[in-house]
Amino acid sequence: MTAAPLPPAQADGDGRRFAGHPMGLAYLAFTEAWERFSFYGMSALLLLYMIQHLLTPAAAGEVLGLASFRSALEAMTGPLSTQAFASQLFSLYSGLVYFTPIFGGLLADRLLGQRRTVVLGALLMTAGHALMVVETAFLIALSLLILGTGCLKGNISVQVGHLYPPGDEGRRTRAFAIFSAAINAGALLGPLLCGLLAQRFGWHVGFGAAGVLMLAALAVYLAGWKHLPADRKRPPGMHGRMPLTARDGRTIAALLLLSMIAILPCAAYYQEMNAGLLFIEASVDRRLFGWTVPTASFNALDGLFCILAVPLLIALWRRQAKRGREPGEMGRIATGYLIIAAANLMMTIPAGRADNGATVGAIWPILLYALNALGFTFYWPTLLALFSRAAPAQLNATMTGILFLSIFLGNLLVGTLAGSWEAMSHAGFFALHAMLAFAAFAIMLLVAGPLKRLLAPPPPDAFATKPQARRQTSARPLRRWA
Asked: Of 197, 228, 223, which is closest to residue 211 (Cα–Cα)?
């Protein structure tokens, strides 16, 4: 038996739509675009800023708590060079912003609701960006950014899924692809703008620009308040917490397994923003018409190629759907992992040349970003849509936060592996990352069948429960469709 499905997303009163979707998608997408604009703009500067300025003897002693933090980290890892410590700190930061969404989801599910939690996150992130211009407050600034992202990131993704009624899986998946395109518009423009400002006017101007962009994200979100989906509440007549059923437990276990598998390709993908930048800085010819392209600006390529991939993949999937050959969720995820494996395997060619002292053309990192972006666009929107649909409603935002945990753990692995950049051959380094992504692909081939059955959407008539029948069963511990 099933309980009453969650109420479908309400249509806008004026009937307006955005590219065939509810108007709420536009506001959520543009909020995320500005937020990612600020996040990726700051992140593109962070590693090089630490290596070239903050961790130098003249500046490091002024940073509140940095010496104690480094001592604690080296107690676990052993002595670290400046590059290795910067890579570890960068990976901890970029990982923790994907760990805290679990707690942001719990805060939304149990106390504030998704909308107020997103606003809280935006305010914390704005404060964090503002403090990035104060060197002594560097670790405080990173902490605020981590907490703010935890409140915002998972909950805004959950709201995208809540715009669609149960059973509307095709539009929900395409909506997440559009949402990802908005994210990557920010990922494209943020590194370009902040990298150029930092190169011309100094690091702190680039960080300050990221703070202004975060304010723009908050303004867009508040402007679209009336179009946003309502916070999820218990159905009328239900008292206390709805217990999880045995089916819910199996669903949660299946989603946790998918999250664990995703750690490996996440590490292979996000390494382009860590050791990948070190490779570009040292071994890539960055000259363009007499001008040297800032290394940080290469991160904009990830956003560019993700944007280009979205309309192509949506068109491909629609065409395949008309022919009855559209790949399922597991197929899309596995395909993404295989593409990321191929991208890193390809990089063994220029890396081998760099090992012999050669400088390589910029076409190689461009191809790496392009293939990684294509693989990411295959698997990540699909995972977001799947978690939004399949996770039990009582834990919907929390489970989406757990999905982001795979990026947290993947980034911890990125930092650990980046610490060996100076010790390994660069060709071997990229080959190792290709193996990680290929291992995830192989595991998906083994588990795709059982997971497909466990996470299959309910038949259409499951949502057509009559009101009288719902009243008769509402007192039982039943599942709500996410």
From this structure: 197
